[in-house]
Write a structure and sequence with these properties.
By secondary structure, this protein is an alpha+beta fold. It folds into two domains: 40 residues; 50 residues, HU Protein, Chain A (Irregular). The chain contains three helices and five strands; from the N terminus they run ααβββββα. A three-stranded antiparallel sheet has the order 1-2-5. Strands 3-4 form a two-stranded antiparallel sheet. β1 and β2 form a beta hairpin.
């Protein structure tokens, strides 16, 4: 499912136009992104929690058989699904 399909579904389920649904989705995603930039986890009860995890620097093997490559440390987004979401997929 892509963004356009999500917007269509939100518009239909909420009874609003696709333009309004697109603005709401955009604002929601922007709010989640800003919270993660500020290192604040975002919890949607029943759905899951978005957070930021720090990845340590590491050495990886070069796929071309050359010397190992050093991968620097970085922040990466993480999502932990909630119980309701997990149970709905069983």
């Amino acid at each position: 499912m892509n963004r356009a399909e999500i917007v269509k579904r939100i518009g239909k389920e909420a009874g609003v136009s696709q333009a309004v649904a697109d603005k709401v989705l955009g604002a929601t995603l922007h709010s989640i992104q800003q919270a993660l930039v500020e290192d604040e986890p975002v919890t949607l009860v029943g759905f899951g929690t978005f957070s930021v995890r720090r990845r340590k620097p590491r050495l990886v093997n070069n796929p071309n058989g050359g010397p190992q490559i050093r991968v620097p440390a970085k922040n990466a987004p993480h999502f932990k699904p909630g119980r309701v979401l997990n149970d709905s997929l069983r």
